[in-house]
Amino acid sequence: MAEAPLMLYNTLTRRKEEFVPLDAENVRMYVCGPTVYDFAHIGNARPVVVFDVLFRLLRRMYGEKHVTYVRNITDVDDKINARAAEEGISIRELTERTAKQFHEDIKALGVLPPTVEPRATEHIVEMKALIEALIANGHAYVAEGHVLFHVPSMPDYGKLSNRSLDEMAAGARVEVAPYKKDPMDFVLWKPSKPGEPSWPSPAGIAEPGRPGWHIECSAMAEKHVGQEFDIHGGGIDLVFPHHENEIAQSRCAHNTKVMARYWVHNGFLQVEGEKMSKSLGNFITIHDLLEEWSGEVIRFNMLRTHYRQPIDWTRKGLEESKATLDRWGEISDRVGGSLTRNALPDLGVIDALKDDLNTPLAITRLHELAKECKTTGDGEAEKWLASAAFLGFDVARWHSPVQSAELVEVTDPDLAQRVKSLVARRVEARKAKDFKEADRIRDELAANGVVLKDAKDPSSGEIVTTWELAR
User: Disulfide-capable partner of 110 in 127, 201, 203, 392 (CB 3.0 to 4.6 Å)?
Assistant: First the structure.
């Protein structure tokens, strides 16, 4: 029986379509990555997790060596310049630090590294070449030291967001500038202020400066996945103007009809029913969440909602996600679950993901498999564990003895001192974001019958770890 095809909702056509790659030997996907000036917030984590699932699925369907996943880093931007000036450090120091923080945080979420992770500042030559092509083709012009894309020069501009020029102009926060030929024209190149990064302009026709945001992704995508490729992904907030402008630049520079054939966008994220913002005091970073919750809990909570739907990020949801993983950990312990290298995930889970990344349905199937393991023993355990691992969850290592262990009083002072020392080392490892070492210590203690329980102190907000012995 043939496996089900992969179906994806295409923002460009506004319908769910069967995914057919341009070249099955080289499936290509580009996803907009972070602008590295601060800790990534939980909204930034959603596309990272969503497209990690799609990356895993594509690799299973076409083979690991036949899928190229590009997720960029924007390291030249107004926000970066402002933050570096505010902290009194170099732009390079800021971007290196925040990129490192980003990688550490998403690694804890079980995210696979992309095939390529290009940085904007490493592709200035490619950006300048694109700008020169746009000028030569009559789609861009020079004005007062800037180079701008002339939006009316592209007849079907607005096709991705399905809005007319008048509608876009009314809803867009466009920069009012007397040198623009049209209010919707956007910057490809602009002069740099003193102290900001600066490069010679394209063909020396404008002032030395730096690229606009939109041209960066067009150049990086072309360099690593080609002028036309399979999938372009990102958050729904990027449809306009960023992705609309990417399409305009890339197509008009090369006179092509398509940039990406499938445009895939994840929905918005809000916190406890409200839009996340610093002014409301509900701005949550991945870094903050990892102080209290494991990366697997955060990932599970993210995937409980279908990627195209809005997600309401709540504490109750995190607690429910942790409770589920705790139960799965108990079942794994009980059936002696172990995962061999060649174990295959359940086709029901795979088919759910092939239906436009239906992770809620895939998780429902995981619940069914867990129930089967619980009632029939270890016959289904490997299929269940392989399916969970495919979604990024290591159930075999998820232990939660607190719910099932019978606790006994500790009477050996030497034992108590040794355990306290290990618990203190684990606390320091968690503070240093060395979660691998923290998990190793936890597993060492669990193997010796020591039960750990992490809880948030309501007065200080800090995580407090207590321990007892299990009989």
Answer: 392
- What is the number of other CB atoms lying within 10 angstroms of the CB of residue 437? 15
Q: Is residue 291 part of a domain?
A: no
Dihedrals phi, psi of 287, to nearest 5 degrees: -60, -45
Percent of the chain residues past pLDDT 70, beyond the cut: 90
Q: How far is CA 26 from the centre of its chain?
A: 22
Inter-CA distances, 450 with 35, 100, 179, 261, 334, Å = 42, 34, 70, 54, 18
The one-letter amino acid code at 216 reads E
What is the band of 106 on the pLDDT scale with cuts at 50, 70, 90?
very high
pLDDT band at 423 (very low <50, low <70, confident <90, very high): confident
Q: Residue 173 domain-assigned?
A: yes
Mean pLDDT score across all residues of the chain: 89
Angstrom distance (rounded) from CA 92 to CA 459: 38
Q: Tell me which amino acid residue 2 is.
A: A
Domain containing residue 261? 7-266
- Structural domain includes residue 287: no
- 35 HSE (CA, 13 A, CB side): 12
Residue 277 covered by a domain: no
Instruction: Give the pair of three-digit tokens for residue 209.
Output: 């400066």
CA 163 to chain CA centroid, Å, is 27
Residues 6+ apart with CB under 8 A from 238: 32, 265
Residues 262 and 406 in one domain: no
Q: Please write the tens of the pLDDT for every residue from 131-164.
A: 999 999 999 999 999 999 999 999 999 999 998 7
Nearest to 46 by CA among 341, 312, 376, 333: 312
CA distance 232 to 195: 34
Number of separate domains in the chain: 2
Q: What is the rounded distance in angstroms from the CA atom of residue 168 to the CA atom of residue 173? A: 9
444 closest CA partner among 462, 429, 464, 463: 429
**To the nearest 10°, the Cα dihedral for 109, 119, 221, 20?**
-20
Least confidently predicted of 108-112, 191-195, 330-334, 354-358: 330-334
* Listed residues 222, 243, 266: the one ending a domain: 266
> Is the pTM above the cut of 0.90?
no
Output the CA–CA distances (angstroms, integers) from residue 371 to 226, 305, 322, 353, 367, in the order listed. Answer: 46, 22, 17, 20, 6
Of the residues 220, 239, 266, which one is the last residue of a structural domain?
Answer: 266
